[in-house]
Amino acid sequence: MKILADENMPYVQELFGDLGTIETVNGRELTSEQVKDADVLLVRSVTQVNESLLGLNCKLKFVGSATIGTDHIDTDYLASRDIPFSNAPGCNATAVGEFAFIAMLELINRFGGKLRDKTVGIVGAGNTGSAVAKCLEAYDVTVLLHDPVIQGSDPRDFIPLDELIARCDVISLHVPITKTGEHKTWYLFDEVRLNSLQQGTWLLNCCRGEVIDNRALIKIKQVRPDIKVVLDVWEGEPNPMHELIPLVELATPHIAGYSLEGKARGTYMLYQKLMQILGKDADKSMKSLLPALWSAQLDIESIPSEKSLLQLTRFIYDLRDDDELFRKTILDNSSKNAQVNYDNNNGFDLMRKNHKHRREFSALRLVNTGQSDVNWLSNLGFSGVGQ
Question: Measured between alpha carbons, how far is residue 52 from residues 26, 31, 32, 288, 325 in Å?
Fold first, then answer.
């Protein structure tokens, strides 16, 4: 069996190695010629899986995408050819939730105020949006939700988008990209909606770049510096608009979900599905893939402020490092290159490929040495709290 896998997917050899021959490829540049003799295709969001890519292949048994979204997959075409497909819903939800929470703490540290005094609106209340809400609610932050797609079948309370914009100090975006239909999300935040943001609003996008009209955002930010923006995703990836980057408070290369746990979970979910299709037992565990947990003694009284909490989260993941690297890689490299058609492809994707240092809160085992209530830390996701 030949298994073709994106070179940026971790733990493929460990999980799939005894099933056949593994060949890793650049997912963004994958061709139909490379795919024609594959039995299994494992991709990420940078690969468009459609008839053009698979037209030469007559033996494909499974297509897996280690992603939450499926907008890069022509599922109708796969179904027409009876090719089983699976994605990995929720695999990196915890990572995205913690990324957004940390980004908010960073903005508090930079601009003042208290996160607990903010009202945060979450647009898109699926796996990732719910993970953001979980972190915020653990920290007693008021959360409002907007999601017209699921509100009819979900017991939580939802409000219209314009009401959310009017009531919220922070807006965090977690929707799939849909270009047509009643609930279209392409340019959901266009120039009109961006202009309607309340004074001092913080806007975070950790889903898809085109949910925000980036050119309109440039225009708005030039006259409204009161709006603070965190962008992990960019219109036109892997070539973000250079003029937007200096206007953004925190900028990263689509790595909000790139924790070791999240990436391992995505690959592992595809392994489980393929083993099911092959009628075999999934006898490997995800826990065996990951490094051991860190441990630290914690006196709860040592984190009396949000600044102290930020310092604790920075021990797990310092968002400033990726922000600095992004600006240096994209802006500095392009300014040194005199060619008009400078290609950020290598820089943007290389940062994603090399992003292997980040862990989730659960990687840190905290031992409470005092008598204070530590349940909120446990609810945030830290391990060993209260034990």
Answer: 17, 9, 7, 38, 35
